[in-house]
Amino acid sequence: MDESLMKIGELAGFFGISVKALRIYEKMGILKPAFVDSQTGYRYYHPEQVQQLNALIELKQLGFSLAEIKNLLEGGMTNDAFMEALVHKKMAFQNAISAAENKIDAIDKITERLSSSEPATKMHELTEEERAWLLVKMVCVEDLHGQSVLSEAIWL
Question: Which of 27, 74, 124, 141 has its CA 20 to 30 A from that of 81?
Answer without folding.
Answer: 27
